[in-house]
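Aim 2 progress. For TBC1 domain family member 24, the working sequence is reproduced below.
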Amino acid sequence: MAEEDYGCFVDWTQMGDLANSSGPSKLDVKDPVELKKLARQGHWAKNHKLRAQVYQQLIKAIPCRTVTPDAEVYRDLMGDSTGKKASSVIPLPDFVDGSAVPHYCLKADAVTTVHRVISCLAGQFPDISHCPVLPAMTALLLHFSADEAQCFENISRLLACNEPGRRLVDQTFLAYESSCMTFGDLAIKYCPAAHKLIVATAQDVVEVYSGWQRWVLGDLPFSHVARVLDVFLVEGYKVLYRVALALLKFYRKQKAGAGAGAQPSEGQKQDSAEVKAEIQAFVKAIGSSITPDKLLEKAFSIRLFSRKEITLLQLANEKSLQQKGITVKQKRRNVQLALNPDTFSSEVVSAKEMRDIWSWIPERFALCEPQLLFTTSTHGCSLNRFYAHVEGYEPTLLLIRTCEADVCGAFLSTDWEERKRGGNKLSFFGTGECFVFRLKPEMERYEWVVIRHPELASSIKAQSSEDPAEDAAPTDGQSSDDNSLPVDRPAADPSNRLSPFLSARHFNLNSRNTSMFMAGNFDSIIVGGGEGNALYIDGELNHGRTARCTTFDNPPLCSTESFQVALLEVWGFQDAMASDR
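Predicted C-alpha cells for this construct:
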C-alpha cells in the first residue's frame, strides 16, 4: 500500500477505517498558530503517510542538546535487527516501573523492536531514573517510523529537548510524582464533581491519580491516542493534563449514568487499586461510546490557565517533595492515614468532615497531618494569643462554629505574620490557593473567582525589571475601606514560599478587589474582600460577619450574616513523614 514506507511495523488488519487513507496528502503550513488549529482539527489524522511525515517534521524542529543520539548512532550500536534476541530475553529497564508495551495495532514482532529501542535508549540516556510512559511513547512513534533507527532518533529528541519551559517526557521520579500531585490539584479545581466521586469511593485519592499518565499513554485505544499525539507534538505536555481531566469527567458521567450516584459510607470505600482498575477498564473501552474528536473537544473545553501557571504548580509540588526527601520511588503513603479518626480530635468538625476538607487542599500537603495550633476553648478569645499561636505556620486552616450551629472556615495559604508588612494598616496578602467553605447547613467550597472565571485575568509575561505586582495591588497610599484595602506585595524572592502558585503577581487583574485574600491587624481578621468580606472576626474572637465578596464570589457562609462565635480553631499542616523519622 501507499504508506508502506511508514507502515512496516503496522498490522493493517487491526487499523479499521484508518487503513484507508483519505484527506490531504501534504502539508506546507509553517505558522505555529495555524499548525495548532490544524492539529486540533485532525487535518492529517486520516492519512497515515502524511501523519508520519508531519510527526518527523515536528520532532525535527524540537530544540535539543548539542549531543543527541540519532539514527546513525542506533545503527552503529544495534546493527541489523535480523537475528537479534526476542523481547523475552531483552527485559525493559527498571525505570519503566513495570509498564508493558501497548500493542497499538503493531505486528507481533514489533514489540521486540520496542524493547530493542528502549534498551538502546537506556544506554544513551543514563540519567533517566523513572519513565513509565516510555514504552507507550516508543510503540506509538514506531507506528509512524520507516525503521527502528528513525524511531530511536525521534524518541531521543523528545528526551533531549532543552527548550526552556518546555516539558515533554518525565524522566525522574520527582518529576513524575509532582505531575501526579499537579493532576490532583487540577482535578480539584476543574473536575469538582468527578473529584468528589473519587473521594467518596476510593480509600486513597492520591493513589488513584498516580495512574493519570497511564490513562492517556497506555490505556487509550490507538485511534484516540494518535489524535492526542497529533496535538501533543504541537502544544506540549499540558495536552496530557487536558485529556486526562476529560477522561475523568467522562468516567464520572458513565458512573452517574450507571446509577452509581449514591456514595458509599466511610467503611464501604473501595480499595484504591480497584478504582484505578475501573478507570483503566473504562478508558480502554472508551471507543465504544466516545470518538477521538469528542474526547479532544471535551479536553479543550476545560478552561485551564496557561502553561506558565501549570509549570508554577509543578515546581511548587517538586519543591514540596524535595523538602520531604521524596526524590526516588518509595511506597506511597495513604493520604487517609494522615487523618486517623482514633487520634484526631476537634470540637468543630468530625474526622470525616476534616477528610472532606483535606480533599480540597493542594496536593503537596497530602502527606501532612493536621496539627491544632489554636482553639478558643483552650487559649481564650484573644486576637493577640491567636497571632502568637499561628504565626510561623503556612498554610493554615481556620474553622468556626457559630452559636447557631453553622460551621464554616477558610484554607489560608500564607503565614499570618505577613500582615506585619503593612504596619498598623489593614493590608491584604495571600495567594489564589486560598478558599472559603461552609460545612453546615450544607457543604460547599468557594475558590478564588479567577479560577472559575479565567476571563477576569490574563497571564503576565516575564518582565525583566518591572514588578508585576504593581498591576495586581493598590499602592500603599490608598484608603483602607472594605472595597479597596491595599494588598501587600509578595516577597521579592518567593523561592522559599509553600504557595507560589496562583499568586496575584502572575496575573493582570481587571479589578483589584479580586485578589483580596486575607488580612489582619490588632482589632480584626478578615478573609476575602471586595464589596464585602467572606469572613470578618472581631478582636475578641467573639462576633463575626459574613457576606458575599468579590474575591471568592461566595454567598454568606452562615444562615445569618452576623453571628456569634461559639468556637474557633486554627489547624496547621505537620509533615507526617518527618514526624515518623
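The chain has three domains: 1-167, 172-257+272-329, 337-452+512-580. This observation will guide construct design in the next reporting period.
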